[in-house]
Design brief:
2 copies of one chain form a homodimer. With 413 residues, chain A is an alpha/beta fold. In chain A, 39% of the residues lie in helices and 23% in strands.
Amino acid sequence: MRVHVINTGTELLLGHVTNTHLSFLGDRLQGRGLRIAKQVSVPDGDAIREALLESAPQADLILVTGGLGPTSDDLTRDIVAELAQAPLEYNDEIQARIEERFRTRNLKITDRIRRQAQVPQGATILWNDWGTAPGLYLHGAPGSGPLAGKHVVLLPGPPRELRPMVDTYFMPLLEVIHPLPVTMTQRIFRIVGLGESAVEDKVGAHLEAIADLELGYCARMGEVDLRLIGPQEVVNNAALYVNEVLDTNIVTDTGESFEEVLVRLLTARGETLASAESCTGGLLANRITNVPGSSAIFLQGFVTYANSAKINSLGVPEQLLLDHGAVSEPVAAAMAEGARAASGSTYALATTGIAGPGGGTPEKPVGLVYIALAQPGFATLVERYVIPLDRETFKYAVTQRAFDLLRKRVVGI
Amino acid sequence: MRVHVINTGTELLLGHVTNTHLSFLGDRLQGRGLRIAKQVSVPDGDAIREALLESAPQADLILVTGGLGPTSDDLTRDIVAELAQAPLEYNDEIQARIEERFRTRNLKITDRIRRQAQVPQGATILWNDWGTAPGLYLHGAPGSGPLAGKHVVLLPGPPRELRPMVDTYFMPLLEVIHPLPVTMTQRIFRIVGLGESAVEDKVGAHLEAIADLELGYCARMGEVDLRLIGPQEVVNNAALYVNEVLDTNIVTDTGESFEEVLVRLLTARGETLASAESCTGGLLANRITNVPGSSAIFLQGFVTYANSAKINSLGVPEQLLLDHGAVSEPVAAAMAEGARAASGSTYALATTGIAGPGGGTPEKPVGLVYIALAQPGFATLVERYVIPLDRETFKYAVTQRAFDLLRKRVVGI
């Protein structure tokens, strides 16, 4: 089954808005053994028609996102109805549900809202329990039109509506229209401490010689992803080899995020974590607390931008700040130790650095950072890096290195 | 000048990886009065050829991202050289730069790396000062091949290489190949407190009647973006109307983020902020500290997951936690007041809620949250919401509401 995704929305092409649908849909389809062959973003309006006409001969399943809302630039429903030769009809149940939703939220219903109760003749409704516009599924448009015999799924643009709708209503539908067993499997290794070409140097030649194995490399911030795709047994054997060669450089091969790995490791050990962040400004705590269940291991985070905060909340000696400056090895160590003492955690991570763009000096340039890990029974560990990147990337790169410092200490490597 | 973007990379279509290139490139081109007419994502390999052949007749400028690296799945350079009928040649200066980069970083250079020193005959090199593979610009491939006369730009896949390369080397090049003055302008209003259809109800009819004005609506998490595009004077006049009608619901119309607006407002007033986060887990501090210069206004953040942290670091009375629970109005207020007292800030925001998926009860369901704002001379303000969304969306939605609580108080509306 060949799958295309069409993302509609002028905002996607004008900047500012990031398309998160593709990675979500790719993940869900992958779980059913399907891959997206092509994805297209087009503005609202007539370009939707052209994109559908272009994809129809190449694809069996076309997922269209966006353009189902109440405003005048929402045209997906109308265009698909036209191409599928399936006239729009009012649906009383949709209308009733929308009215109920507005009533409970005390919102005034407008005429524009009613457009969302229109359904192309014969389409299946994917209910929207998270917003107003329902999704729609058309299969086998009648006649000889361009969408004849194609599976076409229309999904709402807002991710918080699209995602649960896909999981609740589209995935069960997909089991019906694509009932094949999953024969291909995927394994992704998250690798740290090695560059992309070093990873290929170590494992590439061996893996390339394995029949039916598809290989992929992806250099990400502070990690390289190595992807193996193929029949279950082939991937399992290749994975044994990768595990043996890359060993401690592998953070995980289960698709978990770095922070999920840490929460799982600490939970299993009954250990806890605290953080003291200067330059990362809360990102470290935020990433950890994105993991459900992290409250069991994450006791407390301090975001101590001001020196007075470092002194008062973490007990960093004022003299240390005067002698070495806030961005220094002894202050990083004192921050980590202070966070441990204040929270009573097993481990504490601290970051202090110069995120930029301002604030750098010849001795302490933008990108300089100290990362510290405090732990009972061990001397506090401090690592120094210079990571001269833009502010947000710098923050992320620093948390990656802090996580790896913790990971290695926790698993004892 | 018609612009297409082709993003290559199997990982983009398999899930997990989000394509951030499109929003970045859309923004940069927009600044030069150009719009992306279409964007396509395809896997590594032959699909790149097909995408180029499909775009060539429709576009004047084609931006291709990814596939320039050292690994065996990096084929963009080869395919473009073939389609442009411009044989690959080794470039000594690229080779020397790569070797220098590896030397200073103490990395071993491998044979694979040398592929990145290949340049299609006649192409302009866009130097990569942030990684190894340079970008390439081809204009007017010779002969009558499919790329004849087209502007084709090849950019590296990693965002931290692509972004500075675009700003440093591609944008000046674009001024040469597209020297037209910017005649169209764009204005985006970030609107809070109103739904998408309510926004259109208030301003839609009036704005739709304005000639040469293009309108767009985009519902985002906790805000609606209203986009006006057209000639400078038309947009300016329409913006006056929007400002008058939507008034205090407008956070900004300058393209600033919500956090940038807050940092600017507080900096101008010489006021400061602290945060005490439970359910948002550091996201609030992280968003604020993403803004360059935020250290001038953000004194300190507390991420107090554990009750002991709320008691010890914020001075929340233990009895309050016993009587009302951590997720309650009085605890939210005590957290905000405690953060203010500990940090000496002008304002303090606090969040306490149940992010889920676990931890909900009939009286305190998943999604329940209290947001508090403490400020000298005013009673502490506490708002209660129920936002039953997935964990990360919940965290973001809560910070949006917290930011708006602060914004309204700061500007006195």
